[in-house]
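User: Is it possible to get a 3D structure for a protein together with its bound compound? The compound here is adenosine-5'-triphosphate. I've pasted both below.
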Amino acid sequence: MTADAVAVGTTPVLSITGLTIGIGPRKAPKPIVTGIDLDLTPGRIQGLAGESGSGKTVSSLAILGLLPANAVVGGSITLGGAEGPIELIGMGRRQLNTIRGRRIAMIFQDPSSSLHPQLTIGSQLTDHVRTHMKLGRAQAHAHAIELLERVRVPDAEEALGRYPHQFSGGQRQRIAIAIALACDPAVLLADEPTTALDVTVQAGILHLLRDLATERQLAVLLVTHDLGVMSAIADDVAVMRHGAIVEAGSREQIFGSPQHDYTRELLASLPSAQTLPAALANEEDAR
Ligand SMILES: Nc1ncnc2c1ncn2[C@@H]1O[C@H](COP(=O)(O)OP(=O)(O)OP(=O)(O)O)[C@@H](O)[C@H]1O
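Assistant: Yes, that's possible. Here is the predicted structure of the complex:
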């Protein structure tokens, strides 16, 4: 368990309060996110759903201070930890660099964006852990094997010597997850982690994220426009529209008795909400 994971049960490790984001000229930025509240809790997957352009990605990028330079951010994002909560909004680049990858990690739709095409998986994993965790060569090698085994990449030791293009898309996403988990972060931000994968491969990655959240007490923010993905693994769901959260609740509440018209529209318009859970069930049978 990490130092950050002192908060157990329902105590959030990351709290977003009144987050606003505008992008554009400082005096008149275009409002993109207009005040959202979200809590991420150890061991739970918080889904953030909504149509394209609703502000899901910019909200998650704000957590890591990765918005463009012309973004104006307001509100509060606090990260809990052994030394008390720290405010991420307005934090300097150097301090943010000590948090990115170590206490809050991120995976993206395209795993290749997290992987260097000309370096072996082994050098990417070991470089990462040696830089961040100050491990020696042998320890870093052993940790890299353990990480690949944790994300269920077969023949982990042999896999270390291969290049990203020698793996399938699903395996590349598993490797990107291994790199994200290398420093035992408290929070994982996953932005459309399975959108580029076919539905049966999606199911394996979603199971992995579910298991990791529970086993590692990771607090996961799952950003996706796909309510099928959401219904498969999220514990809690927030639905965004035009930069605001229109409805939030447990997965059972949102899928069982949606209150907002927009949530009902989204549920009605997404056939994958039916197909993905079936693929997940098949994958579960196969395990
Ligand atoms: N760098 C930027 N400059 C200007 N506007 C931006 C920038 N990045 C995002 N936006 C705008 O912010 C809004 C929200 O974008 P965001 O990427 O967060 O949407 P999203 O909900 O994640 O959509 P998708 O599911 O398509 O990724 C969009 O209108 C987008 O055009």
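The radius of gyration is 19 Å. The beta strands are 14-23, 30-40, 45-50, 71-79, 86-87, 104-107, 187-191, 219-223, 236-241, 244-250.
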